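Q: What residues go here?
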């Protein structure tokens, strides 16, 4: 990270223009782009598969690249076309999504595929308005698909792009005002670009790999010669941070139950709410801390006709969500002789692993440290 303001020519460099930024990004991206599976193009057309762009953009939202890379190939192998995804059962889609989190995205991607089949003859539309009308597709995602797959001059703004644009222009505004400013600058870049696809993806790539929230690699940045934040040594204060969300603590009590054959008891969550439709160990959630976790677990076990849980809890797990902090306590218990639990089913570990599970319950049921 640059810690001091450089002397000429940087200090006296002209202000960045949209045309200059677009050309610098295009050249830099073509020279340095990472080889990612969704970036491959059809040699005959030079274009990307728009369905692949749709899947990758939905997967990458608020998710680490390492997890997307782990899940992307199996997902598109199972659902290689928009038709295959549209006609698949939702539970199959959720199972392949398991581990990526934010499962509402998987449902929206599934719904978008159905809409494309029903309303667009199975062809992902190139028109921005038609893309925006699909479930789960906002302004950024529509712009990304249109520009990367169809070379439409569409602007894009996500968190990474916003940070790049505010820094290069030296724009220090309150967090609530940053979005419209960034869209104005992104629109100017899209309209000035010689080649929109590498220009837009260069914006994304720069924010993801170089112009990072902390310790930006300014000396490696293709925009460093005219970056006003760097010139004025404000790259660590632009953009202004957003106020952290207030997180409610959810107290989650789960029962890990095995039958005489070593199979694990699982149940499906309700169709709405947190982790809707996913599978879990039998559990109860409380918005306030109970007087006794053991008593709450015993009450749940009794309601399911299970034996009393062991004391103390087998483990305590903490899981961070956008607006919730989940504190989970896991108790082991057993089936009462000659009885069946009132809900759920027993599966072996291989069967459990194939279910759509939240990251938390994957840890509870199958072990591991994935958060």
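A:
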């Amino acid at each position: 990270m640059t810690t001091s303001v450089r002397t000429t020519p940087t200090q006296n460099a002209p202000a960045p223009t949209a045309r200059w930024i677009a050309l610098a990004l295009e050249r830099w991206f073509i020279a340095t782009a990472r080889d990612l599976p969704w970036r491959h193009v059809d040699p005959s057309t030079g274009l990307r598969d728009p369905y692949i762009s749709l899947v990758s953009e939905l997967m990458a939202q608020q998710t680490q690249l390492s997890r997307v890379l782990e899940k992307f190939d199996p997902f598109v192998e199972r659902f290689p076309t928009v038709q295959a995804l549209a006609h698949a059962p939702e539970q199959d889609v959720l199972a392949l999504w398991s581990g990526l989190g934010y499962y509402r995205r998987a449902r929206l991607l599934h719904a978008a595929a159905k809409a494309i089949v029903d309303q667009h003859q199975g062809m992902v539309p190139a028109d921005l308005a038609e893309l925006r009308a699909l479930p789960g597709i906002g302004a950024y995602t529509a712009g990304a698909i249109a520009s990367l797959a169809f070379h439409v001059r569409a602007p894009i703004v996500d968190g990474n792009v916003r940070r790049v644009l505010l820094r290069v222009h030296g724009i220090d505004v309150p967090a609530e005002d940053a979005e419209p400013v960034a869209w104005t600058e992104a629109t100017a870049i899209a309209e000035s670009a010689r080649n929109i696809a590498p220009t837009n993806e260069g914006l994304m790539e720069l924010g993801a790999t170089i112009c990072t929230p902390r310790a930006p690699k300014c000396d490696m940045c293709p925009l460093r010669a005219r970056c006003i934040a760097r010139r004025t040594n404000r790259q660590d204060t632009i953009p202004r941070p957003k106020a952290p969300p207030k997180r409610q603590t959810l107290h989650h009590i789960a029962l890990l139950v095995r039958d005489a054959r070593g199979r694990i008891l699982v149940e499906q969550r309700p169709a709405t709410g947190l982790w809707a439709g996913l599978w879990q160990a039998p559990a109860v959630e409380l918005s306030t801390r109970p007087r006794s976790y053991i008593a709450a677990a015993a009450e749940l076990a009794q309601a399911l006709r299970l034996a009393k849980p062991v004391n103390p809890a087998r483990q305590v797990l903490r899981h961070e969500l956008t607006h919730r902090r989940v504190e989970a306590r896991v108790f082991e218990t057993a089936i009462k002789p000659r009885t069946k639990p009132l809900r759920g089913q027993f599966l072996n570990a291989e069967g459990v692993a194939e279910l759509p599970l939240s990251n938390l319950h994957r840890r509870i049921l199958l072990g591991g440290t994935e958060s």
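A: Context that may help when evaluating the design: Residues 1-10 have pLDDT under 50 and may be disordered. Residues 13-231 form a domain with the Endonuclease III; domain 1 fold (CATH 1.10.340.30).
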